[in-house]
Automatic annotation (TrEMBL):
<dbReference type="GO" id="GO:0005929">
    <property type="term" value="C:cilium"/>
</dbReference>
<protein>
    <recommendedName>
        <fullName>Tubby C-terminal domain-containing protein</fullName>
    </recommendedName>
</protein>
<dbReference type="GO" id="GO:0061512">
    <property type="term" value="P:protein localization to cilium"/>
</dbReference>
<dbReference type="InterPro" id="IPR025659">
    <property type="entry name" value="Tubby-like_C"/>
</dbReference>
<comment type="similarity">
    <text>Belongs to the TUB family.</text>
</comment>
<dbReference type="Pfam" id="PF01167">
    <property type="entry name" value="Tub"/>
</dbReference>
<dbReference type="InterPro" id="IPR000007">
    <property type="entry name" value="Tubby_C"/>
</dbReference>
<feature type="domain" description="Tubby C-terminal">
    <location>
        <begin position="24"/>
        <end position="270"/>
    </location>
</feature>
Amino acid sequence: MISVFRLQKTREQMSEKEVTDFVMNPVPQGQKVLCKIIRSKDGFGKFYPQYELYIEDISENGEETRTFLLAARKRKKSKSSHYIITTDKLDVAVSSKNIVGKVRSNFLGTAFAIYSKGRNPFKRESESSNLPVREELGAVVYDPNILGFKGPRKMTVLLIGMTRNGERPEFRPETDAQTLIGKFKNGDHRDILVLHNKSPQWNEETQSYVLNFNGRVTLASVKNFQIVHDNDLDYIIMQFGRVEEDTFTMDFMYPMCPLQAFAIALTSFDAKLACE
């Protein structure tokens, strides 16, 4: 039986360490976290919108309250898509002390790696840093659609396999071959949880591809998706979709943590001309 996750404390009652621990750790098994993502692209933010993640709490009488959790913005002057994720919506700068994660794409924008805060082992100038090597938390690979056929996106989500105790082991690769995408491309799927987006079905009446979001998604969009394991298509680990022009729902369950789910959603916002 799946129950809806509820925070035991308000954001004001949580210490910064408690917030960080919560966004980094998998949610309890058997519980679903309901979230909203608000996109703000006013003024100069039109090309570099800010995304804010809120946990939803819906009471028995239908009243909704939102608790801010994470914010993200794409870095300017970056050769590839590069998002900074922080626990402070007023400070999403690259120098922010509240950074908890980053998302970075390849040049084509078809593959994304998700990292915790930490030292980048691929940069020489970071060798003197006192920070530990960053932890890789996941990766998303979109199937390129070079021929330009219109249709739903196809995405593969790579996560670290969980231990028998239900915990996520640390994973800090220091070479390209050791990364999740590197191992996946080399056919080494040991200790990797390989997930895919659920294939939508063609609806003759609406002349579109559709998925059953159980009322949580109300607008059609190429960005909408559900993430499942091939062995259990009914266990929706994560779903994401549009409800208003700049409002999206994002729901997720074990084994994901809030940071992983938010980062995966950010990859869907990114323009991928090769994947449309």
